[in-house]
Write a structure and sequence with these properties.
Elements (H helix, E strand, L loop, with lengths): L2 H8 L12 H7 L1 E5 H9 L3 E4 L5 H9 L3 H10 L2 E3 L2 H9 L1 H4 L2 E7 L2 E6 L4
Parallel strand pairs: 2-5
Antiparallel strand pairs: 1-4, 2-3, 4-5
Helix pairs in contact: 2-4
């Protein structure tokens, strides 16, 4: 394999796992409800992104897994999708109420997407 082929191969992101499931089935398989404690190591690894409530986590997962760059860049530019930074982590680490927050999370290797669950 020449260097260009290797580069293309290593940049090919998809939903974690190789199987014959449809993209929608994989989205279900690699998503769930979790706490900040589970997400924190992903933040520390620099791969955790938070979604605004205007985007469903499944739509974002599909955009990531199909390399829909325009859609992802649009969300990043309008703030609907943000990389979790130290300020977010500090809040979820220090505030007792925030520690109880629940997130919907989805693994789209190498990224982890999360969204705060609505209370109620």
């Amino acid at each position: 394999m020449n260097p260009e082929e290797i580069k293309k191969e290593t940049l090919k992101y998809g939903i974690l796992g190789e199987d014959n499931s449809s993209p929608q089935e994989k989205l279900e398989k690699f998503s769930g409800i979790t706490s900040w404690e589970y997400l924190k190591p992903h933040y520390e690894a620099g791969v955790l992104y938070h979604l605004d409530s205007s985007i469903t986590i499944k739509d974002a997962g599909l955009a990531f897994s199909t390399d829909d760059t325009k859609k992802v860049e649009s969300w990043l530019s309008d703030g609907s999708l943000v990389k979790i930074e130290a300020l977010h982590a500090f809040q979820w680490d220090s505030d007792e109420e925030s520690k109880k927050e629940q997130f919907e999370a989805l693994v789209v290797s190498p990224f982890v997407l999360c969204q705060l669950k609505n209370k109620g």
